[in-house]
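ARCHIVE RECORD
Type: protein–small molecule complex
Small molecule: NAP
Source of inputs: curated submission
Record status: active
Notes field left blank by submitter.
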Amino acid sequence: MIVGLIGAGHIAQALAEGWSRSGLTAAPRLRFYDVDSEKAASLAARCGGEAAASLAGLVAPCDLIVVAVRPQHVDGVLLSLAPLIEERVVVSVAAGVTMDRLLGSLPARSRVARVMPNIPAALGLGVFLLVPGTVGPARQDVESLFALAGEVVALEEELFDAATAVAGCMAGMLARFVEAFTAAAEAHGVPADTAARLAMGGVHGAAALIAREGDAAAVSAAAATPGGMTEAAITALDARGLAAAVAAAVDAATARAKDLA
Ligand SMILES: NC(=O)c1ccc[n+]([C@@H]2O[C@H](COP(=O)([O-])OP(=O)(O)OC[C@H]3O[C@@H](n4cnc5c(N)ncnc54)[C@H](OP(=O)(O)O)[C@@H]3O)[C@@H](O)[C@H]2O)c1
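STRUCTURE (tokenized, with ligand):
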């Protein structure tokens, strides 16, 4: 499959890295286009693939187009794309841009899907929320493509913003968690670089364990020996409103997605 990425920014880079990891069978051939031709060229050099000098040049050999520009640029890109796409599948990864808005800018019967990726896609550990939209039987191709860089979860569009607030925003939120634990260890006198290594290593191992077990509550219960340190830590987190803070974060991100639409 030949995949064309419009916009060579942060998420395009994560996707391209995820799709170009060594040893990946069935990796797509990648093409890049950005208003800043140097960005497209540097991504092509870094991940393998070709930079196109124009949108038409990008689209011509491609089977599938990924629109990876900021939400406020999506309408303009789609208007330019409309006369070029013919039967090609278009996937938008823009936050808050609904199927109605995507289809409104493209010819009738266009094959369009929404996917919400996240940055761990670069490591092949992405979570991709999928609204299959109007892609029909090509859904299999879309799922197979994104599954090369992580896990694909299909869901109804009404749930997309809240789901994005969890999966899409997780790297940023968890990074704040790591920073907070680093600062807490430093406050107890642990040197800064050691504190950061402890927090990052702890998160990495714990996340892998929880993913393997598939049951966060069971891992929490197993880790919290009655009367022990972890139980004391969890009790303090709960008493300070961890659940309420997380709910507020998801509410805020969901509301922000609606503002972007
Ligand atoms: N970053 C994430 O973690 C993440 C996660 C999930 C989804 N997304 C979605 O992915 C999209 C891109 O986000 P991003 O963080 O990658 O943004 P970004 O880093 O700003 O990248 C977007 C790129 O598109 C370029 N661009 C603007 N208009 C263009 C046009 N007409 N044709 C071609 N290229 C154009 C921009 O150039 P200029 O800078 O010159 O405008 C920029 O290089 C957004 O819609 C966002 O909602 C992002």
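CURATOR ANNOTATION: The chain has two domains: 2-160, 170-260.
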